[in-house]
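Ticket #4471: complex job returned nothing on first submit. Input attached below:
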Amino acid sequence: MGVAQGPGYGGSERLTDVHGDAARPWHAAAWLAWAVAATAALQLAPSPLYVALVIALATLMVAVFGGDSPYARAYPVLVGLALVFAVLRVALTALTTHGGPDVLVTLPGATLPDWLGGFTVGSTIEAPVVAQAAYEAFVIVGIVAVFAAANAVIAHHELVQGLPRAFHELGLVVAVGVAFVPTTIRAIHDVREADRLRTGGRPVRRGRLVRQIVPVLERGLEHAITLGESMDSRGFARGGSTPGERAAAWCGAAGLAALGGAFVALVAGESTPALVCIGVGTGAVVGAIALASRGSRRARYRPRRLTRADGGLIAVVALAPVALAGLALAGDDRLAWAASPLRWPALSLPAVLALALLAAPLVRRPAPAPTHDPAAAVRPAAGPVVPA
Amino acid sequence: MSAITYRDVRFGYPDGPDALRGVDLTVPTGDVVLVVGPSGSGKSTLLRAANGLVPHASGGRFAGSVVTFGRDTRTHAPRALADVIGFVAQDPEAQFVVDRVEHDVAFVLENLGQSDVTMRRRVEEALDALGIAHLRGRSPSSLSGGERQRAAIAGVLAAAPAAIVCDEPTSQLDPQGADDVLAALVRLNADLGTTVLLAEHRLERAAAIAHHAVRVDDGRVVGTGRPGPLLADYPGAPSVTRLGRLLGWDPPPLTVREARARAADPAGLPVPALADDRAHGDGHGDAPVPGPSLVRAEGLRVERGGRPVLHGVDLDVRAGEVVALFGRNGAGKTTLLRALAGLDPPARGSVTTSAAVGCVPQDPNALLFAPTVRREVAETLRLLRRPDPAAVDRWLDALGLTALADRHPRSLSGGERQRVAIAAVAVGGAPVLLLDEPTRGMDAASREALHDAVVTHARAGGAVVLATHDIELAARCATSVVVLGDGDVVASGPARTVLAGSLFAPQVLRVLPPFCTVDEVATALATGGAR
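Support reply: We reran it on our side without changes. The output follows.
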């Protein structure tokens, strides 16, 4: 057996996953940093052209790093869903918000009684209102695209392994939940076909939703039960967690929440609360790490270490929001966009360059998918991945 | 010492009838024990009780005791038994926790808190034992069914359990995948001494590897013993076993090899007329009645993602025909059915249909949503706006579903669900029925009902196309056989001609050519005896 004779046996040196790591050149934590940086960039530069650029980058990442995994196939579906919700949101806003110049069209309208809010539904639809709603919705589409892309390229088990001991069970449950997205998409496809086949190809619209939703839900439920039994049979949650681990978990959760709050405060331009949140959050996270490292280490099979290259990627992508924040402080008014007066959004070269940093993962390409030929599969590890 | 001991185990699912009604059973250490019984007989429940999934995961009313390697399952949850007994479920898709084979195999070791060194050694050993080391970096979702099921077994084997419980591990697999899985289980048993408790419907392979068999019916153990004698009168027994029983061979053979040894001995053939019949007879005539063409594919090429899945397939399905479509997984069987049903458009060539085509997908669960079997079947007619309760009853009866008409489709076994799906499509009245692996997970009674329904439908002027791996079923009902290989037709013609030339011919044909089925031998015996 290879491992028994390998140099890494029993030592601290890790053997790498031949296909796994070559197919995924970046650590999950690096991708997470990329997603956070891209989201921050979207908040800092919400002008539609920048958002379009970030969505294009996210799509490119899925195309290059997603391969043909089911998560990658879920990407267009998730972005499509986000677009549907964006359109709904624009329509609702346009129908209920009124005032201003540039009336596009006048619909029959009705004003609701005061006890229902007293606003007018329908009536005039103004261009600036539509534009402003679309602008805001587009940013949300961008954020969904970024997280759908991260979901497509991340190795979820690496994230779970990276979690503190006390978070492990929770993290695993979340990862398993995420895995239901592609399964459900495939189930929806199957069920729609089966519904067509039932009548010999004649589509029957009446009652179609029930005929299609029930099998999807029930299949999902049966899948979940089998998976739960499989996990139980394989000793999941056998040990339980110690009080110290639980304390570390809560500390870590509080720290992350505080840091999230700091981010919100920064976006809203409240610097004092932001500073307080950063202080509290950092302290809590450091405390959590200290508490967690005192306890026993959870057994982990071949955890993937962050390499120097991963660290480099994290630093580079983190530069993107920092540079954008610098531009904002320097008074670049082209980062955001205003619907009134209506004008074409402008681009600034420095901002485009800052966003281009988010393309940094492309310097490494995934190795081609392993062949299905067993003879080829026993070859020694492929050489280091050549930077493009 | 016994591995697992059941003492007067009684169990009922919540809001359900009793599934086990007093089971006493001892599973000896180091043996392969095969559990057989019709769908809904309590096989699964019996197996799931071995590691405490029943009652811990299922809830319900539990009485009696199950002791697994000295641990009582009443006080030990499945996770507390993970180091002594592993459980592998029927559905190879739904049991992976981690999206990479190697890490999924390590999952149990992480939960058991093994050291780093132990974990790495055990993962390598488990991958090697199942022959899947080359798949270690793959995502389970990208594997074939047989590979997935072996990966799932590796995922419990890594803990080095003293016993492995497999609930119909091969029923969702093609013959190649099923062979791989059973061979792996034999190896574990022989090399590591792992006790294997196995439930199966398809016994052609499984019966030959078992040391003991247990027959379960209606929640009770109705027989235990050596597989040969115990299975001789079991409806789902391998064809050679039933042949052996018909010819009075004792003990009944379990494999073609054993049966051929008996058939080579002239004393093994009790009726001389049978030997005569073999010399110049061809069994009974089953020449297809050529009716008008119902569906015709000409030069059919179908592409998926730019890659051709079918290149230039010709197929003519005529009224009165039952066409069996063979080929390994990925050979294009399902794509051909989809193209005939109009789901996949041809990239070149054409599909001409002169009658309505009904198609039942491989996974019956995609179709089932109604609260009862009867309403599920009636729904199709409601959608077609011609309610016809008589047709519903006719198809329920044809597929042996009358007794289940008021049950919830989801509460049925895999084979029963498959029959409900077939009834729900067939009731629409389409003369051409396309069935994609209809016998997956079916017990003997279900297969019998399916066989009868298929034959009746074809005799009434319809046509049936079966994409299947079930060569025994095809030998009994197909009039013509088409073998697909890599998107091409590699053989086609009358069933008997094609099957006779095949390496994987039906068991009876390999023992007593030219007979294909036990029924043919029985007929020949009867007429020979009368002569």
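Chain B has two domains: 2-231, 293-506. Closing as resolved unless it happens again.
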